[in-house]
């Protein structure tokens, strides 16, 4: 799908309309949210032949519209754009003393979709109304790459010169306070120029201990965000392969803190084998608890010395 603001786009291998039945009936709250999204200009009424299943999910006391774009993604050509790895980002910020973490406000929904492609995002509600997205949305396979490319283009020469971005999260890093104030001013000016907004309540400014992508970054080290480690420690005992995948996915993100992670997780990964019955044997709870304890009490990892 073409993005108006920059020369990024999302193409389809077929123009044959993808249409699926709607998900279980929505409630009054769902219709209210649809009206709110329409009022905000994020969605509008549609007569498209496309139809994607829609669901409203409550997260942290707030309702979110979630769409199952799997069928649409199957005919979407993958955008050729590389998102940096977390290792790349964490390595580059070493040697810095001051940090700011900037969070984009409803990041994807700030980017207009090309008019010719909006009908492909259509979804229906049980009362017969059909809507389509006017703006980029979660679930489309190229949304992260599209936003990453936009953010990198906006940062321009600041990228790798005190600023890095991972999709909708930006981290600024400098050695001195004066450098940091100057950098903040440049970043704000560039994003304001194209009307992209930050979420002040989720931003961190001029700090020596900065939460970023599930980690806490300081001038000397990288720590696991305590909120994340506590959340993993409270993960309930898995009852099927889906829950095992979810647990291992969370833990794999922090595997650098767990010595011999693959070996220690083997009793759990064995449960993911095809045609293997899900049996919670004596080894599996030991591995489950062992990994949770390792994440709850991780070692401190030092940032690499840029001058070494």
TrEMBL record:
Top EC class, one word: transferase
Segments forming a coiled coil: none
Protein name: RNA-directed DNA polymerase
Residue span(s) of domain Reverse transcriptase: 1-217
Transmembrane stretches, start-end: none
Organism from which the protein derives: Trichonephila clavipes
InterPro entries named in the record: DNA/RNA_pol_sf, Rev_trsase/Diguanyl_cyclase, RT_dom, Viral_Replic_Matur_Polypro
EC number(s) given by UniProt: 2.7.7.49
Cross-referenced SUPFAM superfamilies: DNA/RNA polymerases
A molecular function GO annotation: RNA-directed DNA polymerase activity
Pfam families the record matches: RVT_1 (PF00078)
Gene name tied to this protein: pol
């Amino acid at each position: 799908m073409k993005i108006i603001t920059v020369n990024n786009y999302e193409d389809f291998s077929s123009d044959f309309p993808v249409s699926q039945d709607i998900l279980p009936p929505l409630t009054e709250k769902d219709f209210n949210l649809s009206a709110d999204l329409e009022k905000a200009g994020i969605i509008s009424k549609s007569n498209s032949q496309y139809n994607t299943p829609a669901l409203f999910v409550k997260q942290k006391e707030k309702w979110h519209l979630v769409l199952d774009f799997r069928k649409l993604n199957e005919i979407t050509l993958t955008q050729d754009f590389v998102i940096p790895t977390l290792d790349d980002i964490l390595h580059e910020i070493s040697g810095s003393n001051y940090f700011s973490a900037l969070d984009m406000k409803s990041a994807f929904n700030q980017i207009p979709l090309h008019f010719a492609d909006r009908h492909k995002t259509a979804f229906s509600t049980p009362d017969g109304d059909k809507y389509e997205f006017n703006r980029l949305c979660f679930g489309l396979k190229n949304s992260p790459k599209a936003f990453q490319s936009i953010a990198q283009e906006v940062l321009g020469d600041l990228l790798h010169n005190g600023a890095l971005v991972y999709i909708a999260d930006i981290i600024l890093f400098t050695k001195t306070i004066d450098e940091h104030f100057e950098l903040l001013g440049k970043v704000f000016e560039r994003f304001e120029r194209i009307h992209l907004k930050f979420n002040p309540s989720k931003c961190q400014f001029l700090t020596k201990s900065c939460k970023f992508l599930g980690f806490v970054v300081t001038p000397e080290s990288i720590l696991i965000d305590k909120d994340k480690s506590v959340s993993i420690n409270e993960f309930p005992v898995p009852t099927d392969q889906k829950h095992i995948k979810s647990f291992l996915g969370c833990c794999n993100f922090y595997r650098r803190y767990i010595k011999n992670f693959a070996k220690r997780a083997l009793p759990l990964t064995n449960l993911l084998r095809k045609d293997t019955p899900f049996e919670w044997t004596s080894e599996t709870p030991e591995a489950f608890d062992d990994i949770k304890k390792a994440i709850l009490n991780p070692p401190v990892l030092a940032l690499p010395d840029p001058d070494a």
